[in-house]
Amino acid sequence: MLTRDFLINADCKTAFGAIEESLLWSAEQRAASLAATLACRPDAGSVWIFGYGSLMWNPALEYRETCTGTLPGWHRAFCLRLTAGRGSACQPGRMLALKEGGRTTGVAYRLPDETLEDELMLLWKREMITGCYMPTWCKLELDDGRTVNALVFIMDPRHPLFEPDTRAQIIAPLIAKASGPLGTNAQYLFSLDQELRKLGMHDDCLDDLVGKVRTLLGENSQPGLA
């Protein structure tokens, strides 16, 4: 399982599995990306992070406040070819990202001002190992009525790992077979489905996909979160 200690101590070249050297970002590239993102910070208020995948149940971040919310204009899609973590180059899976259109519900975290850059560097080490996302400041509608600017990791459609075909019949066999140092791709999908249900949220794109993957694996039960 991916933990805070794992992220702090991880050597990105090996900890997540074999990553193609041409895709792997250096610590300097991640730092430059973070600096550029902070330079575009829309206001001097607290920094919020929006989690729509594993950040919902496993943030591995220090935070001061959390709240569920909705991100307008973007929807979940398993459009990232997964060759490390829960997949491999020889048996790639699919990882979650965001594509334009629709709405996405998830969990927002307000980071501590005093250790902001340390927390963000850890987050960049987790999310930007290959630079596949575009860290973007978005208006987020919190369920308590507030609207905040939040950092959201959106799929970069120019990235070599971007996969436009996200039909369930195409990606279910990939997710059912893929695994890596962090576990199976299917476990990630099931954990996402379970967390959304626990929070009283629903995502239409998951129903058919979860059913197809369970059928391929011969499973009927719902495994625990990972």
UniProtKB/TrEMBL annotation:
SUPFAM superfamilies noted in UniProt: Gamma-glutamyl cyclotransferase-like
Keyword vocabulary terms for this entry: Lyase
Enzyme type, top EC level: lyase
GO CC field: cytoplasm
A Pfam family this chain is assigned to: ChaC
PANTHER family: CATION TRANSPORT PROTEIN CHAC-RELATED, GLUTATHIONE-SPECIFIC GAMMA-GLUTAMYLCYCLOTRANSFERASE 2
InterPro entries: ChaC (IPR006840), GGCT-like (IPR013024), GGCT-like_sf (IPR036568)
Keyword Lyase: yes
Species of origin: Klebsiella electrica
Protein name as it appears in the record: glutathione-specific gamma-glutamylcyclotransferase
Gene Ontology biological-process entries: glutathione catabolic process
Xref: Gene3D superfamilies: Gamma-glutamyl cyclotransferase-like
GO molecular function: glutathione specific gamma-glutamylcyclotransferase activity
EC numbers for this chain: 4.3.2.7
